[in-house]
Amino acid sequence: MIDYSKILSNTVQSIKPSGIRKFFDIAATMDDVISLGVGEPDFQTPWSVRKAGITSLEKGKTKYTSNSGLEPLRREISNYINRKCNVEYDPSHEILISVGGSEAIDATLRAIITPGDEVIIPQPSYVCYEPITALCGGVPVIIETLAENDFKVTPRQLKNAITKKTKALILPYPCNPTGAIMERKDLEALAEVLRDTNILVISDEIYSELTFAEKPHVSIASIEGMCERTILINGFSKTFSMTGWRLGFACGPKEIISQVTKIHQFAIMCAPTTAQYAAIEALKNCDEAVADMKAEYNRRRRLIVDGFNKAGLTCREPKGAFYAFPSIASTGLTSEEFCERLLEAKHVAVVPGTAFGKGGEGFVRASYCYSTEHIIEALRRIEEFVKEIEK
Amino acid sequence: MRNEILKLLGANARYTVEQIATMTASTPEAVEAEIDTLQKEGVICGYKTVIDWEKIDATTVSAIIELNVVPKADLGFEEVAEKVASYPEVEAVYLMSGGYDLNVVVKGKNLQEVSRFVARELATIDSVTSTATHFVMRRYKEMDVKLIETKKDDRGTFLL
Q: Global pTM?
Protein backbone atom coordinates (compact mmCIF):
# COMPACT_ATOMS: atom_id res chain seq x y z
CA MET A 1 0.00 0.00 0.00
CA ILE A 2 1.44 3.38 -1.02
CA ASP A 3 1.46 6.01 1.70
CA TYR A 4 0.65 9.04 -0.45
CA SER A 5 1.10 11.43 2.45
CA LYS A 6 4.80 10.63 2.26
CA ILE A 7 4.93 11.32 -1.47
CA LEU A 8 2.80 14.42 -1.94
CA SER A 9 4.26 17.86 -1.34
CA ASN A 10 4.23 18.82 2.32
CA THR A 11 3.22 22.36 1.42
CA VAL A 12 0.21 21.21 -0.57
CA GLN A 13 -0.92 18.86 2.14
CA SER A 14 -0.63 21.52 4.79
CA ILE A 15 -3.02 23.85 2.91
CA LYS A 16 -6.44 23.56 4.51
CA PRO A 17 -9.32 22.65 2.17
CA SER A 18 -12.13 25.14 1.61
CA GLY A 19 -14.16 25.67 4.76
CA ILE A 20 -17.49 25.30 3.02
CA ARG A 21 -17.20 21.68 1.90
CA LYS A 22 -19.64 20.48 4.53
CA PHE A 23 -22.22 23.07 3.44
CA PHE A 24 -21.99 21.75 -0.10
CA ASP A 25 -22.72 18.29 1.28
CA ILE A 26 -25.69 19.38 3.39
CA ALA A 27 -27.17 21.50 0.59
CA ALA A 28 -26.80 18.62 -1.85
CA THR A 29 -29.33 16.61 0.17
CA MET A 30 -31.98 19.33 -0.02
CA ASP A 31 -34.45 20.02 -2.76
CA ASP A 32 -35.51 23.61 -2.59
CA VAL A 33 -32.37 25.42 -1.46
CA ILE A 34 -32.44 29.14 -2.10
CA SER A 35 -28.80 29.94 -2.49
CA LEU A 36 -27.13 33.29 -1.98
CA GLY A 37 -23.81 31.51 -2.09
CA VAL A 38 -22.36 31.77 -5.58
CA GLY A 39 -19.65 34.16 -6.65
CA GLU A 40 -20.38 34.53 -10.34
CA PRO A 41 -22.85 36.65 -12.32
CA ASP A 42 -26.29 35.32 -13.24
CA PHE A 43 -26.26 37.33 -16.49
CA GLN A 44 -25.37 35.75 -19.80
CA THR A 45 -22.28 36.88 -21.63
CA PRO A 46 -23.60 39.64 -23.96
CA TRP A 47 -24.78 38.05 -27.20
CA SER A 48 -22.40 40.01 -29.45
CA VAL A 49 -19.49 38.64 -27.42
CA ARG A 50 -20.75 35.07 -27.70
CA LYS A 51 -21.26 35.65 -31.42
CA ALA A 52 -17.69 36.91 -31.81
CA GLY A 53 -16.45 33.74 -30.10
CA ILE A 54 -18.62 31.53 -32.30
CA THR A 55 -17.53 33.37 -35.45
CA SER A 56 -13.87 32.91 -34.54
CA LEU A 57 -14.50 29.15 -34.25
CA GLU A 58 -16.32 29.07 -37.58
CA LYS A 59 -13.33 30.82 -39.14
CA GLY A 60 -11.04 28.19 -37.69
CA LYS A 61 -9.24 30.43 -35.18
CA THR A 62 -8.28 27.53 -32.96
CA LYS A 63 -4.51 27.68 -32.86
CA TYR A 64 -2.26 29.04 -30.12
CA THR A 65 -1.97 32.80 -29.97
CA SER A 66 1.28 34.46 -28.98
CA ASN A 67 2.15 33.82 -25.32
CA SER A 68 1.19 37.35 -24.28
CA GLY A 69 -2.10 37.07 -26.11
CA LEU A 70 -3.56 38.53 -29.30
CA GLU A 71 -2.02 41.89 -30.11
CA PRO A 72 -5.37 43.58 -30.97
CA LEU A 73 -6.70 42.47 -27.58
CA ARG A 74 -3.69 43.82 -25.72
CA ARG A 75 -4.22 47.12 -27.54
CA GLU A 76 -7.88 47.19 -26.54
CA ILE A 77 -6.94 46.42 -22.94
CA SER A 78 -4.38 49.22 -22.98
CA ASN A 79 -7.04 51.66 -24.25
CA TYR A 80 -9.56 50.36 -21.73
CA ILE A 81 -7.23 50.72 -18.73
CA ASN A 82 -6.13 54.15 -19.90
CA ARG A 83 -9.77 55.23 -20.24
CA LYS A 84 -10.90 53.78 -16.92
CA CYS A 85 -7.84 54.17 -14.69
CA ASN A 86 -5.81 56.89 -16.38
CA VAL A 87 -2.73 54.67 -16.53
CA GLU A 88 -0.84 53.92 -19.73
CA TYR A 89 0.47 50.43 -20.37
CA ASP A 90 2.41 49.56 -23.51
CA PRO A 91 0.55 46.67 -25.14
CA SER A 92 3.80 45.24 -26.50
CA HIS A 93 5.60 44.73 -23.20
CA GLU A 94 3.45 45.65 -20.26
CA ILE A 95 0.33 43.54 -20.68
CA LEU A 96 -0.14 39.77 -20.40
CA ILE A 97 -3.42 38.05 -21.22
CA SER A 98 -3.99 35.23 -18.76
CA VAL A 99 -6.38 32.39 -17.95
CA GLY A 100 -8.62 34.45 -15.73
CA GLY A 101 -7.47 36.88 -13.11
CA SER A 102 -6.68 33.72 -11.13
CA GLU A 103 -3.76 32.68 -13.33
CA ALA A 104 -2.47 36.26 -13.39
CA ILE A 105 -2.36 36.26 -9.58
CA ASP A 106 -0.68 32.85 -9.45
CA ALA A 107 1.95 33.61 -12.11
CA THR A 108 2.68 37.03 -10.61
CA LEU A 109 3.24 35.61 -7.14
CA ARG A 110 5.48 32.91 -8.61
CA ALA A 111 7.43 35.55 -10.48
CA ILE A 112 8.14 37.71 -7.46
CA ILE A 113 8.42 35.41 -4.45
CA THR A 114 11.72 33.99 -3.33
CA PRO A 115 11.07 31.40 -0.57
CA GLY A 116 10.87 33.20 2.79
CA ASP A 117 9.49 36.43 1.32
CA GLU A 118 6.51 37.85 3.16
CA VAL A 119 3.28 38.78 1.39
CA ILE A 120 0.82 41.01 3.22
CA ILE A 121 -2.74 39.81 2.66
CA PRO A 122 -5.78 41.70 3.97
CA GLN A 123 -8.59 39.46 5.23
CA PRO A 124 -11.46 38.74 4.96
CA SER A 125 -10.70 38.32 1.26
CA TYR A 126 -10.78 35.83 -1.57
CA VAL A 127 -9.48 32.43 -0.55
CA CYS A 128 -6.69 31.95 -3.10
CA TYR A 129 -4.09 34.48 -1.94
CA GLU A 130 -2.92 32.63 1.16
CA PRO A 131 -2.55 29.15 -0.36
CA ILE A 132 -0.85 30.39 -3.55
CA THR A 133 1.61 32.43 -1.48
CA ALA A 134 2.36 29.34 0.59
CA LEU A 135 2.79 27.18 -2.51
CA CYS A 136 5.47 29.59 -3.75
CA GLY A 137 7.35 29.29 -0.49
CA GLY A 138 6.16 32.71 0.59
CA VAL A 139 4.98 33.63 4.08
CA PRO A 140 1.46 35.10 4.28
CA VAL A 141 1.19 38.01 6.73
CA ILE A 142 -2.46 38.69 7.45
CA ILE A 143 -3.96 42.12 8.09
CA GLU A 144 -7.42 41.83 9.67
CA THR A 145 -9.53 44.57 8.13
CA LEU A 146 -12.33 45.80 10.40
CA ALA A 147 -15.97 46.72 9.93
CA GLU A 148 -15.37 50.04 11.71
CA ASN A 149 -12.90 50.91 8.93
CA ASP A 150 -15.34 49.69 6.27
CA PHE A 151 -12.94 46.75 5.79
CA LYS A 152 -10.29 48.99 4.24
CA VAL A 153 -6.56 48.54 4.82
CA THR A 154 -5.36 51.44 6.97
CA PRO A 155 -1.86 52.93 6.64
CA ARG A 156 -1.20 52.09 10.29
CA GLN A 157 -2.10 48.44 9.75
CA LEU A 158 0.16 48.39 6.71
CA LYS A 159 3.09 49.97 8.57
CA ASN A 160 2.74 47.47 11.42
CA ALA A 161 2.75 44.54 9.02
CA ILE A 162 5.85 45.58 7.05
CA THR A 163 9.12 43.87 7.94
CA LYS A 164 12.48 43.55 6.22
CA LYS A 165 11.15 40.45 4.50
CA THR A 166 8.02 42.04 2.99
CA LYS A 167 8.00 41.50 -0.78
CA ALA A 168 4.45 42.48 -1.67
CA LEU A 169 1.05 43.68 -0.56
CA ILE A 170 -2.03 42.13 -2.13
CA LEU A 171 -4.74 44.75 -2.50
CA PRO A 172 -8.07 43.17 -3.55
CA TYR A 173 -10.52 46.04 -4.03
CA PRO A 174 -13.44 46.05 -4.63
CA CYS A 175 -13.32 43.13 -2.21
CA ASN A 176 -14.87 39.69 -2.11
CA PRO A 177 -16.55 38.99 0.43
CA THR A 178 -16.84 42.37 2.17
CA GLY A 179 -17.91 44.51 -0.81
CA ALA A 180 -15.45 47.13 0.45
CA ILE A 181 -13.75 49.64 -1.86
CA MET A 182 -10.68 51.83 -1.44
CA GLU A 183 -11.15 55.40 -2.57
CA ARG A 184 -8.47 57.74 -3.86
CA LYS A 185 -7.65 59.19 -0.45
CA ASP A 186 -7.37 55.68 1.07
CA LEU A 187 -4.98 54.57 -1.67
CA GLU A 188 -2.93 57.77 -1.40
CA ALA A 189 -2.47 57.06 2.31
CA LEU A 190 -1.12 53.59 1.52
CA ALA A 191 1.07 54.97 -1.27
CA GLU A 192 2.64 57.30 1.31
CA VAL A 193 3.81 54.22 3.24
CA LEU A 194 5.00 52.28 0.19
CA ARG A 195 6.57 54.88 -2.06
CA ASP A 196 10.12 54.71 -0.73
CA THR A 197 10.23 50.96 -0.28
CA ASN A 198 10.88 48.03 -2.57
CA ILE A 199 7.48 46.57 -1.79
CA LEU A 200 5.29 45.63 -4.73
CA VAL A 201 1.52 45.90 -4.87
CA ILE A 202 -0.55 43.19 -6.52
CA SER A 203 -3.82 44.98 -7.14
CA ASP A 204 -6.64 42.53 -7.81
CA GLU A 205 -9.26 44.77 -9.44
CA ILE A 206 -11.51 42.09 -10.91
CA TYR A 207 -14.63 43.85 -9.55
CA SER A 208 -13.54 47.33 -10.71
CA GLU A 209 -16.64 47.91 -12.89
CA LEU A 210 -18.93 47.07 -9.98
CA THR A 211 -18.26 50.17 -7.95
CA PHE A 212 -21.37 51.86 -6.57
CA ALA A 213 -19.83 54.93 -4.96
CA GLU A 214 -20.16 58.52 -6.18
CA LYS A 215 -16.82 58.35 -7.93
CA PRO A 216 -15.70 55.53 -10.22
CA HIS A 217 -13.09 52.94 -9.25
CA VAL A 218 -9.56 54.22 -8.72
CA SER A 219 -6.56 51.97 -9.31
CA ILE A 220 -3.56 52.31 -7.01
CA ALA A 221 -1.46 52.20 -10.19
CA SER A 222 -2.73 55.70 -10.99
CA ILE A 223 -1.43 57.17 -7.71
CA GLU A 224 1.86 59.02 -7.97
CA GLY A 225 4.90 56.81 -7.57
CA MET A 226 2.90 53.58 -7.65
CA CYS A 227 2.83 52.57 -11.29
CA GLU A 228 6.41 51.31 -11.19
CA ARG A 229 5.65 48.97 -8.28
CA THR A 230 2.08 47.82 -9.07
CA ILE A 231 0.89 44.80 -10.98
CA LEU A 232 -2.68 45.62 -11.96
CA ILE A 233 -4.79 42.51 -12.37
CA ASN A 234 -8.24 42.49 -13.89
CA GLY A 235 -10.30 40.35 -16.23
CA PHE A 236 -13.50 39.64 -18.04
CA SER A 237 -15.30 37.27 -15.67
CA LYS A 238 -17.28 39.68 -13.55
CA THR A 239 -17.52 42.75 -15.81
CA PHE A 240 -18.73 40.94 -18.90
CA SER A 241 -20.18 37.78 -17.27
CA MET A 242 -17.48 35.66 -18.86
CA THR A 243 -16.51 33.50 -15.89
CA GLY A 244 -16.35 30.23 -17.83
CA TRP A 245 -14.40 31.73 -20.72
CA ARG A 246 -11.35 32.02 -18.39
CA LEU A 247 -9.81 35.30 -19.44
CA GLY A 248 -7.96 37.93 -17.48
CA PHE A 249 -4.89 40.12 -17.71
CA ALA A 250 -1.94 41.51 -15.80
CA CYS A 251 -0.47 44.96 -16.45
CA GLY A 252 2.75 46.24 -15.00
CA PRO A 253 6.32 47.36 -15.58
CA LYS A 254 7.89 45.41 -18.45
CA GLU A 255 10.59 44.00 -16.20
CA ILE A 256 7.94 42.25 -14.12
CA ILE A 257 5.51 41.35 -16.90
CA SER A 258 8.28 39.71 -18.94
CA GLN A 259 9.02 37.33 -16.05
CA VAL A 260 5.32 36.62 -15.42
CA THR A 261 4.99 35.91 -19.15
CA LYS A 262 7.90 33.49 -18.94
CA ILE A 263 6.05 31.44 -16.32
CA HIS A 264 2.82 31.71 -18.29
CA GLN A 265 4.63 30.52 -21.41
CA PHE A 266 5.93 27.36 -19.75
CA ALA A 267 2.82 26.54 -17.74
CA ILE A 268 -0.04 27.59 -20.02
CA MET A 269 1.31 28.60 -23.49
CA CYS A 270 -1.54 31.07 -24.04
CA ALA A 271 -5.00 31.95 -22.79
CA PRO A 272 -7.95 30.38 -24.67
CA THR A 273 -7.96 31.71 -28.23
CA THR A 274 -11.74 31.76 -28.61
CA ALA A 275 -12.08 33.78 -25.41
CA GLN A 276 -9.53 36.30 -26.65
CA TYR A 277 -11.43 36.97 -29.88
CA ALA A 278 -14.66 37.31 -27.93
CA ALA A 279 -13.01 39.69 -25.47
CA ILE A 280 -12.02 42.12 -28.24
CA GLU A 281 -15.72 42.51 -29.01
CA ALA A 282 -16.50 42.92 -25.31
CA LEU A 283 -14.08 45.81 -24.88
CA LYS A 284 -15.11 47.49 -28.13
CA ASN A 285 -18.88 47.34 -27.99
CA CYS A 286 -20.28 46.38 -24.61
CA ASP A 287 -20.23 49.58 -22.56
CA GLU A 288 -24.02 49.75 -22.64
CA ALA A 289 -24.50 46.11 -21.66
CA VAL A 290 -22.09 46.58 -18.74
CA ALA A 291 -23.93 49.72 -17.62
CA ASP A 292 -27.28 47.84 -17.72
CA MET A 293 -25.89 44.95 -15.66
CA LYS A 294 -24.38 47.37 -13.17
CA ALA A 295 -27.70 49.23 -12.77
CA GLU A 296 -29.46 45.93 -12.12
CA TYR A 297 -26.80 44.88 -9.54
CA ASN A 298 -27.25 48.26 -7.87
CA ARG A 299 -31.01 47.78 -7.47
CA ARG A 300 -30.42 44.35 -5.96
CA ARG A 301 -27.67 45.72 -3.72
CA ARG A 302 -30.04 48.25 -2.19
CA LEU A 303 -32.71 45.61 -1.76
CA ILE A 304 -30.45 43.09 -0.01
CA VAL A 305 -28.80 45.60 2.35
CA ASP A 306 -32.21 46.97 3.33
CA GLY A 307 -33.53 43.43 3.80
CA PHE A 308 -30.71 42.37 6.13
CA ASN A 309 -31.00 45.51 8.23
CA LYS A 310 -34.79 45.06 8.49
CA ALA A 311 -34.20 41.45 9.61
CA GLY A 312 -32.03 42.70 12.47
CA LEU A 313 -28.66 41.77 10.93
CA THR A 314 -26.60 44.96 10.70
CA CYS A 315 -25.35 45.33 7.16
CA ARG A 316 -23.02 48.18 6.27
CA GLU A 317 -23.45 49.39 2.72
CA PRO A 318 -21.08 47.52 0.42
CA LYS A 319 -19.84 49.90 -2.27
CA GLY A 320 -18.35 47.30 -4.61
CA ALA A 321 -18.44 43.74 -5.98
CA PHE A 322 -21.76 41.86 -5.64
CA TYR A 323 -21.73 40.74 -2.02
CA ALA A 324 -23.37 41.89 1.18
CA PHE A 325 -21.48 41.07 4.40
CA PRO A 326 -23.98 41.43 7.24
CA SER A 327 -23.05 40.91 10.86
CA ILE A 328 -24.86 38.05 12.58
CA ALA A 329 -23.58 39.02 16.02
CA SER A 330 -27.09 39.90 17.21
CA THR A 331 -28.06 36.22 17.01
CA GLY A 332 -25.33 35.09 19.39
CA LEU A 333 -24.37 32.34 16.95
CA THR A 334 -21.01 31.77 15.25
CA SER A 335 -20.88 32.25 11.50
CA GLU A 336 -20.84 28.51 10.89
CA GLU A 337 -23.66 27.84 13.34
CA PHE A 338 -25.76 30.55 11.67
CA CYS A 339 -25.19 29.15 8.21
CA GLU A 340 -25.82 25.56 9.23
CA ARG A 341 -29.01 26.35 11.12
CA LEU A 342 -30.31 28.70 8.41
CA LEU A 343 -29.72 25.98 5.83
CA GLU A 344 -31.46 23.31 7.95
CA ALA A 345 -34.38 25.44 9.08
CA LYS A 346 -35.10 27.56 6.02
CA HIS A 347 -33.09 25.98 3.18
CA VAL A 348 -31.29 29.24 2.52
CA ALA A 349 -27.58 29.07 1.76
CA VAL A 350 -25.15 31.83 2.67
CA VAL A 351 -21.40 31.52 3.19
CA PRO A 352 -19.84 31.86 6.67
CA GLY A 353 -17.46 34.81 6.87
CA THR A 354 -14.81 32.51 8.35
CA ALA A 355 -14.36 30.90 4.94
CA PHE A 356 -12.52 34.11 4.03
CA GLY A 357 -10.30 34.43 7.09
CA LYS A 358 -10.54 34.50 10.89
CA GLY A 359 -11.72 38.12 10.75
CA GLY A 360 -14.87 36.91 9.03
CA GLU A 361 -16.16 35.44 12.31
CA GLY A 362 -19.49 37.04 13.15
CA PHE A 363 -20.34 37.73 9.51
CA VAL A 364 -21.86 35.91 6.57
CA ARG A 365 -21.52 36.57 2.85
CA ALA A 366 -24.64 36.84 0.70
CA SER A 367 -24.25 37.33 -3.04
CA TYR A 368 -26.75 39.36 -4.97
CA CYS A 369 -26.09 37.82 -8.33
CA TYR A 370 -29.64 36.46 -8.41
CA SER A 371 -33.00 37.78 -9.61
CA THR A 372 -34.80 40.24 -7.33
CA GLU A 373 -37.60 37.71 -6.81
CA HIS A 374 -35.03 35.16 -5.60
CA ILE A 375 -33.45 37.71 -3.27
CA ILE A 376 -36.83 38.82 -1.89
CA GLU A 377 -37.77 35.22 -1.06
CA ALA A 378 -34.40 34.54 0.58
CA LEU A 379 -34.68 37.69 2.69
CA ARG A 380 -38.19 36.71 3.76
CA ARG A 381 -36.94 33.35 5.02
CA ILE A 382 -33.91 34.92 6.71
CA GLU A 383 -36.12 37.42 8.54
CA GLU A 384 -38.33 34.55 9.75
CA PHE A 385 -35.25 32.63 10.87
CA VAL A 386 -33.86 35.54 12.89
CA LYS A 387 -37.26 36.07 14.59
CA GLU A 388 -37.38 32.36 15.48
CA ILE A 389 -33.90 32.48 17.04
CA GLU A 390 -34.87 35.48 19.15
CA LYS A 391 -37.70 33.52 20.76
CA MET B 1 -36.41 57.80 -11.73
CA ARG B 2 -39.56 57.27 -13.76
CA ASN B 3 -37.71 55.09 -16.27
CA GLU B 4 -36.44 52.86 -13.48
CA ILE B 5 -39.94 52.58 -11.98
CA LEU B 6 -41.35 51.67 -15.40
CA LYS B 7 -38.60 49.11 -15.95
CA LEU B 8 -39.32 47.48 -12.58
CA LEU B 9 -43.12 47.47 -12.90
CA GLY B 10 -42.79 46.30 -16.49
CA ALA B 11 -40.80 43.30 -15.27
CA ASN B 12 -43.00 42.56 -12.25
CA ALA B 13 -46.21 44.49 -11.55
CA ARG B 14 -46.33 43.02 -8.06
CA TYR B 15 -43.32 44.89 -6.68
CA THR B 16 -44.57 46.90 -3.70
CA VAL B 17 -44.04 50.63 -3.54
CA GLU B 18 -41.63 49.99 -0.63
CA GLN B 19 -39.54 47.55 -2.68
CA ILE B 20 -39.38 49.93 -5.63
CA ALA B 21 -38.40 52.77 -3.29
CA THR B 22 -35.57 50.67 -1.83
CA MET B 23 -34.27 49.59 -5.22
CA THR B 24 -34.30 53.13 -6.63
CA ALA B 25 -32.94 54.81 -3.47
CA SER B 26 -36.14 56.81 -3.15
CA THR B 27 -39.06 57.02 -0.71
CA PRO B 28 -42.38 55.14 -0.92
CA GLU B 29 -44.21 58.50 -1.09
CA ALA B 30 -42.17 59.71 -4.06
CA VAL B 31 -42.60 56.38 -5.86
CA GLU B 32 -46.36 56.38 -5.19
CA ALA B 33 -46.66 59.91 -6.54
CA GLU B 34 -44.68 59.09 -9.66
CA ILE B 35 -46.75 55.98 -10.38
CA ASP B 36 -49.88 58.07 -9.93
CA THR B 37 -48.61 60.62 -12.46
CA LEU B 38 -47.63 57.90 -14.93
CA GLN B 39 -51.12 56.41 -14.64
CA LYS B 40 -52.78 59.81 -15.15
CA GLU B 41 -50.59 60.49 -18.18
CA GLY B 42 -51.60 57.18 -19.68
CA VAL B 43 -48.01 55.92 -19.72
CA ILE B 44 -49.02 53.11 -17.38
CA CYS B 45 -52.20 51.80 -18.99
CA GLY B 46 -52.92 48.73 -16.89
CA TYR B 47 -51.57 45.83 -14.84
CA LYS B 48 -52.13 42.33 -16.24
CA THR B 49 -50.99 38.91 -15.14
CA VAL B 50 -49.48 36.48 -17.65
CA ILE B 51 -51.44 33.24 -17.25
CA ASP B 52 -50.88 29.89 -18.92
CA TRP B 53 -54.53 28.80 -19.06
CA GLU B 54 -53.64 25.47 -20.67
CA LYS B 55 -52.03 24.34 -17.44
CA ILE B 56 -55.36 24.43 -15.59
CA ASP B 57 -57.19 22.77 -18.45
CA ALA B 58 -59.42 25.74 -19.22
CA THR B 59 -60.66 25.68 -22.79
CA THR B 60 -59.29 28.66 -24.53
CA VAL B 61 -58.22 29.37 -28.09
CA SER B 62 -56.32 32.33 -29.47
CA ALA B 63 -56.13 33.51 -33.04
CA ILE B 64 -54.19 36.18 -34.89
CA ILE B 65 -56.30 37.80 -37.60
CA GLU B 66 -54.82 39.88 -40.40
CA LEU B 67 -57.27 42.52 -41.57
CA ASN B 68 -57.02 44.53 -44.73
CA VAL B 69 -58.82 47.84 -44.40
CA VAL B 70 -59.77 50.71 -46.67
CA PRO B 71 -58.76 53.75 -44.62
CA LYS B 72 -61.25 56.62 -44.26
CA ALA B 73 -60.44 60.08 -45.68
CA ASP B 74 -59.87 62.11 -42.50
CA LEU B 75 -59.56 59.37 -39.94
CA GLY B 76 -57.25 56.88 -41.63
CA PHE B 77 -57.48 53.58 -39.81
CA GLU B 78 -58.48 55.08 -36.44
CA GLU B 79 -62.22 54.47 -36.69
CA VAL B 80 -61.89 50.82 -37.65
CA ALA B 81 -59.13 50.18 -35.13
CA GLU B 82 -61.26 51.68 -32.33
CA LYS B 83 -64.29 49.66 -33.36
CA VAL B 84 -62.29 46.41 -33.40
CA ALA B 85 -60.66 47.25 -30.06
CA SER B 86 -64.05 47.76 -28.41
CA TYR B 87 -64.93 44.05 -28.59
CA PRO B 88 -64.17 42.13 -25.36
CA GLU B 89 -63.06 39.13 -27.45
CA VAL B 90 -60.23 41.23 -28.89
CA GLU B 91 -57.07 41.16 -26.81
CA ALA B 92 -54.82 43.26 -29.02
CA VAL B 93 -55.00 45.51 -32.10
CA TYR B 94 -51.95 46.81 -33.95
CA LEU B 95 -51.62 48.91 -37.12
CA MET B 96 -48.93 47.21 -39.19
CA SER B 97 -46.54 48.03 -41.98
CA GLY B 98 -46.17 45.48 -44.78
CA GLY B 99 -48.66 43.07 -46.34
CA TYR B 100 -51.74 43.86 -44.27
CA ASP B 101 -53.15 46.66 -42.15
CA LEU B 102 -54.44 45.54 -38.75
CA ASN B 103 -53.15 42.69 -36.62
CA VAL B 104 -55.89 41.54 -34.24
CA VAL B 105 -55.52 38.98 -31.43
CA VAL B 106 -58.81 37.28 -30.57
CA LYS B 107 -59.54 34.91 -27.69
CA GLY B 108 -62.48 32.51 -27.49
CA LYS B 109 -63.64 29.26 -25.88
CA ASN B 110 -63.03 27.19 -28.98
CA LEU B 111 -62.29 27.25 -32.74
CA GLN B 112 -65.95 27.69 -33.71
CA GLU B 113 -66.51 30.62 -31.40
CA VAL B 114 -63.47 32.48 -32.74
CA SER B 115 -64.37 31.71 -36.38
CA ARG B 116 -67.93 32.88 -35.78
CA PHE B 117 -66.68 36.12 -34.22
CA VAL B 118 -64.36 36.83 -37.17
CA ALA B 119 -67.05 36.04 -39.74
CA ARG B 120 -69.90 37.89 -38.03
CA GLU B 121 -68.22 40.84 -36.37
CA LEU B 122 -64.85 41.59 -38.00
CA ALA B 123 -65.38 40.63 -41.64
CA THR B 124 -68.65 42.54 -41.74
CA ILE B 125 -67.13 45.88 -40.70
CA ASP B 126 -67.65 48.39 -43.51
CA SER B 127 -64.03 49.20 -44.36
CA VAL B 128 -62.66 45.66 -43.86
CA THR B 129 -61.86 44.19 -47.26
CA SER B 130 -60.38 40.83 -46.19
CA THR B 131 -59.52 38.69 -43.16
CA ALA B 132 -56.95 35.93 -42.70
CA THR B 133 -57.24 33.90 -39.50
CA HIS B 134 -54.29 32.04 -37.97
CA PHE B 135 -54.88 29.94 -34.86
CA VAL B 136 -52.27 29.84 -32.10
CA MET B 137 -51.13 26.22 -31.60
CA ARG B 138 -48.80 26.73 -28.67
CA ARG B 139 -47.62 29.72 -26.67
CA TYR B 140 -43.94 29.76 -25.72
CA LYS B 141 -43.35 33.29 -24.51
CA GLU B 142 -45.67 36.19 -23.74
CA MET B 143 -44.97 39.70 -22.42
CA ASP B 144 -41.35 38.71 -21.87
CA VAL B 145 -42.40 35.75 -19.68
CA LYS B 146 -41.42 32.23 -20.73
CA LEU B 147 -44.37 29.83 -20.51
CA ILE B 148 -42.28 26.77 -21.28
CA GLU B 149 -39.89 25.11 -18.81
CA THR B 150 -37.60 27.80 -17.50
CA LYS B 151 -33.90 27.04 -17.45
CA LYS B 152 -32.61 25.88 -14.09
CA ASP B 153 -29.83 27.84 -12.43
CA ASP B 154 -26.91 25.55 -13.23
CA ARG B 155 -24.42 27.30 -11.00
CA GLY B 156 -23.66 25.33 -7.83
CA THR B 157 -25.17 26.30 -4.50
CA PHE B 158 -21.84 27.66 -3.29
CA LEU B 159 -18.90 29.05 -5.19
CA LEU B 160 -16.21 31.26 -3.78
A: 0.92
